[in-house]
Amino acid sequence: MEPALSALMTASGAESLLERAYIDAVEQVDDMDETRAQILDAAYEQFCRMGVQRSTMEDVARRAGVSRITVYRRFATKNALVEHVVRREFRRYFDQFLRDIQQAETAADRVVLGFVSSLRAIRSNPLIGGLIATEPDLLVPSMISDGGRTLATVRQFVAGQLRQEQRAGNVSSDLDADLVAEMMVRISASFLGIPSHLVDLDDDEQLAMVARRFLVPMLEPPAPLADRE
């Protein structure tokens, strides 16, 4: 496996790409100069058209209309360039998720919209969704063999949204936000990683039905043991 591909989800260093993207989205970080953005745009287009493995730094420089030296000044290696392209796509996912759930009026509606938005955003992304669809042996294993860091990052993001609902009084304070978020994320991840023969993942109405039937009830805390007898 090419090193750049194995690094997509778990970059070297203390934080994964997903963790960095999550922090960027929450803190609304914007450290992009024009040339850097131009190179990342070109790399994204190059990787979508030709794939990561078949693309070179020279290809990216040519598509960006800059010299190869300029690309290397911003990104020392191809791995670094791939990591930053993927990180930006995950940042866009988090940003889009936050925009989508703002359209909903209730906590239940936000769960439904968030579930549908997440699957649509990742599956329809030409780079991330394309790799999941065409090279699942390269990307999917890295999502499940990183010691749980990828899942934990997304769980942290969803749990944060649930705690906002609790503070607003929309969800019971007795709800275990971390556990509910983990279950929601695991369900979403299973749809991404394992094809379904029952649910059309390209049908937003079907996805919304699944979310209302199985995810929304998670917003209710478990009844006390005395009430179950």
Helix content: 55-70%
N/C terminus separation: 55 Å
Order of H and E elements? HHHHHHHHHHHHH
Q: How many E-type strands?
A: 0
Structural class: mainly alpha
Notable characteristics:
229 residues, mainly alpha, 13 helices, 0% strand, disordered N terminus, Tet_transcr_reg_TetR-rel_C_sf, Homeodomain-like_sf
Molecular structure report:
With 229 residues, the chain is mainly alpha-helical. The termini are far apart. InterPro entries: Homeodomain-like_sf (IPR009057), HTH-type_TetR-like_transc_reg (IPR050109), HTH_TetR (IPR001647), Tet_transcr_reg_TetR-rel_C_sf (IPR036271). This is TetR/AcrR family transcriptional regulator. Keywords: DNA-binding.
SSE map:
Elements: H1 3-6, H2 17-27, H3 34-50, H4 57-64, H5 68-74, H6 78-101, H7 107-124, H8 128-134, H9 136-144, H10 149-167, H11 177-193, H12 204-215, H13 225-228
Brief write-up:
This protein is mainly α and 229 residues long. The protein is 69% helix and 0% strand.
